[in-house]
Specification:
heterodimer, A: alpha/beta, 24% strand, B: MetI-like fold, flat
Chain lengths: 320, 302
């Protein structure tokens, strides 16, 4: 299938008093139409910034983002808002903070429809909003309630309804379940999967939870300090983890079996600063296998096996 | 199946409908609920309401004209005829204090509104646009703030002269920095919220963002500052009148009444006691109410 999104050498730097913070550094990947890519990594590795840069909530420092072949990263922000805003939507991490506490559920769902369809009558807007509410499983009686009266799952359904009401093709899900109880996480994940199946949506699913990403993604990309260090089909990463950081990340998944003694790979050492990093492997400071070469040279993402790319000088040594 | 419609059933239906009608809980009603549960805040509100009534019905409440001098009853101690006693010119202090409420409340209100629309607006602009605009506005406010409030107000009155508009202008200028700072903080707090970003993501424009999202969410905090500032204005106005740079002599303003009594403090302390009590109670009430509002609007801030 064709690629809906092609990201090429995308960079997003923030200027701080101490220097440039490399939040997203030279990231390249594609997302096929109707597929889900899972972006994993620890806090502060640039996952959310990557998502917000695709949304143009941040302006990229350099690089390209092709959406159906058109570069949305460098186009004028006004043109982007006019033509692409409704195609690319986002579901936010925290359903407690991302909904205006002074708006009722109906108002919240109506808002995107209202601001993007100026000609629509009030009744049409309401009808469409009700349709969206039904689609995401929000009962009609909740229309006049306020977000603070609802549980996390229902709130996140509002977030989903808001994003979907613009009929997007591509949705950035920025840790949509990390603020929810485990029992409710499954509901929201199932809802997202159902919607993907019915409407052919393409997702970029940002998370730090490996078990969630296993459940929902077709492809997985691992990020570390702004860089993409491993990228492969979802099944592959759980079988053949190559990058030492990914190995550590996977070994941290808890297994619900008390008899199983598991070898944990515990990382030691300081996190390299993302502010003006030296040209070396950014994981070298914590990597148990680091050599001189890792400190001198920056590894690039290269294909080790078909469909499996890794950014490590010694990737071949870790192939099982 | 056809539904029966007997009068009895209809009555039950109506009753059920009434019972089922859900109580709407908007953030405002929630805040009012919390406010009602706070006894000190309620006391503040009641005292403020009483003061308003006193100010409105001053001519009905005051037993004497506030400026008529009765030379048969000079410097009298509080009695049933003169509740708060009389001053050195035989004017009834009770009546003067009652009329004083008018001046204090109205001028304080004007001062606060003026400060809000000058300093407050500057603060909102600084907070919303940020960057250079913010730096320029806030550094100017810093320069203002370097001069003590009362000093500043005194200088302005010294230039513009006595009178109510001058006094309002003086207090407005003196309080602009604080007002700007508070409102800027209120807007900044809202601006950093996730729901602003999420609204941006669904395509909400700048105007709608300010009108529908930022102001409704910041208005609670702004109301709190507004009420708190009423107390500050009353204090400032009275202090200025007391030191002689506020309102001119015959006006029954609490600070002025205090000033009148100053010379007789040792023989007739009540001349100062009652106007001072008026100022104190009023400021106290506004502060209690302001604190109550803060707790009501923002229960997490305590």
């Amino acid at each position: 299938m064709a690629n809906l999104i092609e990201v090429k050498n995308l960079k997003k730097y923030f200027s701080t008093p101490r220097g440039m913070l490399h939040a997203v550094d030279n990231v390249t990947f594609n997302i096929e139409k109707g597929k889900t890519i899972g972006i994993v990594g620890e806090s502060g590795c640039g996952k959310s910034t990557l998502g917000k840069t695709l949304m143009r909530l941040h302006n990229p420092t350099s690089g390209e983002v092709l959406y159906n072949g058109a570069d949305i990263a460098s186009m004028d922000i006004k043109e982007f808002k006019k033509k692409y805003r409704s195609n690319i939507q986002m579901i936010f991490q925290d359903p407690y903070a991302s909904l205006d506490p002074r708006m009722s559920v109906l108002q919240l769902v109506e808002e995107p429809i209202k601001v993007n369809n100026k000609g629509m009558s009030k009744a049409e807007v309401t009808a469409k909003a009700r349709e969206m509410m039904e689609l995401v499983g929000l009962a009609k009686r909740l229309e006049m309630t306020y977000p603070h009266e609802l549980d996390g799952g229902r709130r996140q359904r509002i977030g989903v309804a808001r994003a979907l009401s613009l009929n997007p093709e591509f949705i950035v899900c920025d840790e949509p379940v990390s603020a929810l109880d485990v029992s409710i996480q499954a509901q929201i994940l199932n809802l997202l999967q159902d919607l993907q199946r019915d409407r052919g949506l393409t997702y970029m699913f940002i998370t730090h939870d490996m078990s969630v990403v296993k459940h929902i993604s077709d492809d997985i990309a691992v990020m570390y300090l702004g860089q993409m260090i491993e990228k492969c089909p979802a099944k592959e990463i759980f079988k053949n983890t190559i990058h030492p950081y990914s190995q550590a990340l996977l070994s941290a998944i808890p297994i619900p079996n008390i008899h199983l003694k598991k070898e944990r790979m515990v990382l030691k050492g300081e996190l390299t600063s993302p502010i003006d990093p030296k040209p070396c492997c950014r994981f070298a400071a914590r990597c148990p296998y680091a050599t001189e070469k890792c400190l001198a040279d920056e590894p690039v993402l290269r294909e080790i096996k078909p469909g499996h790319s890794v950014a490590c000088h010694f990737a071949e040594n870790f192939v099982k | 199946m056809a539904k029966m419609h007997t009068p009895a059933m209809e009555k039950i239906e109506r009753k059920n409908a009434k019972r089922r009608k859900p109580k709407r809980s908007t953030p405002a009603t929630e805040a009012w609920k919390r406010f009602k549960r706070n006894p000190t805040a309620l006391i503040g509100l009641i005292v403020v309401a009483l003061l308003l009534l006193i100010a409105i019905f001053a001519p009905l409440i005051a037993p004497y004209d506030y400026q008529v001098q009765d030379f048969m009853a000079m410097s009298q101690k509080p009695s049933s005829a003169h509740l708060f006693g009389t001053d050195q010119l035989g004017r009834d202090i009770f009546s003067r204090c009652i009329y004083g409420a008018r001046y204090s409340l109205v001028i304080a209100l004007f001062c606060t509104i003026a400060a809000f629309f000058s300093g407050g607006l500057l603060g909102i602009i600084a907070g919303y646009f940020g960057g250079k605009v913010d730096t320029i506005i806030m550094r100017i406010m810093d320069i203002f703030q370097a001069i003590p409030m009362i000093m500043m107000a005194m200088c302005i009155v010294a230039v513009l002269g006595n009178g109510i508009p001058q006094l309002v202008a003086a207090i407005m200028f003196a309080s602009m920095p604080t007002m700007a700072r508070n409102n800027r903080a209120a807007i900044l707090r809202v601006r950093g919220c996730d729901y602003i970003e999420s609204s941006e993501a669904i395509g909400v424009g700048q105007v709608r963002m300010i009108v529908k999202h930022m102001i409704p969410n910041a208005v609670g905090v702004m109301v709190i500052y507004f009420v708190g500032f009423l107390a500050v204005s009353i204090m400032m106005m009275s202090s200025m009148s007391y030191i002689g740079v506020g309102l001119a002599a015959p006006t029954p303003e609490w600070g002025l009444i205090l000033n009148d009594g100053k010379a007789y403090m040792t023989q007739s302390p009540y001349m100062m006691l009652f106007p001072a009590l008026c100022i104190m109670v009023t400021c106290f009430a506004f502060n209690l109410m302001g604190d109550g509002l803060r707790d009501a609007f923002d229960p997490k801030m305590k």
